[in-house]
Each structure stands twice: as structure tokens, then as C-alpha cells.
Give the backbone structure.
Amino acid sequence: QVQLVESGGGLVQPGGSLRLSCAASDYTFRSYAGGWFRQAPGKEREFVAAVTWGGSATKHADSVKGRFTISRDNAKNTLYLQMNSLKPEDTALYYCAAGPRCFSGFCDYWGQGTQVTVSS
């Protein structure tokens, strides 16, 4: 069973940047697609971005397209989310996820989340 641990969240001003990391416990992560999701207070969890197992294909939600970039380093068993031009509406708990069908949004393994707060 793959365990995922997120890091890199924090408080940032509007227009700022953060890079989230997600470290996987097992090399089997390299054969799984990966994704990032987020959940704001009082709202349902929503898709943010996904990447195929080899990193050859990515997709991003319209709300973050052009500002966020998902990537992965399979040599380090790590998934990343680079977030630029952050807005207050990006404030949420961010989760990473992985699994064979995670590129389609059906992920089997989840981290505990890292908080991102965008505020002046």
C-alpha cells in the first residue's frame, strides 16, 4: 500500500507562489498516475490537476490552468504542484492522490492534506 505525505503548504499573499510536494513511500508509485485535489471550507473536494505515470500527459482544472503546473520525479517517488499567481479563492486543503485510474479522477491512495491559505 502506497502512503503519500504532502508538504509545502502555508500562508502566502495574493499573487505569490508555492510549490507543493507529495512523497510516496513505495516505488510502486512510479507505475501510478498522480493527482492533486483541494477542498475549501464548506465546499466539496474538487479536482486540480493530474499526470500520467510517466509524466507524458497532464491536465489541469480550468480554474488553475496557466497558473498551476503538475509534475513528477519518479526517481524520487515525488509528485509536485507548482502554484503561481495565487488568489484568495485558491485557499483550501490540498491533497495528493495516486492510483492506476487516477488520471481519470478515480484515485486509490490519498495523503492527509496540506493547507494553503492565500491572504493579505
The mean pLDDT is 96. The first strand starts at residue 4 and ends at 7. The radius of gyration is 13 Å. The chain has no helices and eleven strands.
